[in-house]
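Can anyone check this?
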Amino acid sequence: MKYSRASKWVLVFMAFIFFIPFVVGNDTLFMTFGDYRNIDSIGWICYIDDMNNVKAAEIARFALSINFFSWIGLIVYITTMVSAEFHQGTIRASVVYGINRTKLFLSKLLVINVYFFILYYIVETALGLGLAWKYGFHYKGEEFLIFIGMVTLNMIAMIGMEAVAVLITVLVKNTGIVAALSCVYFFAGAITYPMVYENFQNQSVLLKAFCVMNPTTYMYNICGYRMTNGIVVGTIMYGMGACLVGIVLMHFALKRQEL
């Protein structure tokens, strides 16, 4: 990973997206659904309603607005690194040294994730503090910790999506195909969920199931700074559930494959 071009490009990518919320201005909307003047909305929003009365939710939404790009960056980065394990033959080290290939694979994924999410937390923390400074806002009480909690929730949902992408990569071993399939699934949810958001309970079971299993459902709500118990619990269940299922299926896929 130290000598990987992909890892270097991730660093450049993170530095680039850091500046996006500073460039767009306080009256620019990325995407929003519902009433963006209160907490009960979904999507990305960069909007300060009253410059003399800036709210923690507005700063948080501004900082979280880059998450759309972070999700795409993670998908491309993780599929590139995983595919390289097979194309370069480094995964065969498990056979040479008699190491369980699943453990070896997971250890490498852990290192990759630590690297990516350290950068992710640095960018989000810097945005949370930098945007507050820009608009003269001062955090009170637990407001900044709540913001970090939303950043963490988004990370959990991202890991769930990543597990699905990694599983497909193990099966297909083609970065382009996996990234395309992951992005299609991602954008399908990005289009579908906003259409059914306000009348979600009256939708069909299949449509509800699709939204529940699609990461954009959680991303929209997290970026909209919606902190209901349902969103928090649902995000954790999705992230951990997708991760567990992905690891189990990946184990059996690696076990059956000839490397």
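Reply from J.R.: I decoded it. The mean pLDDT is 81.
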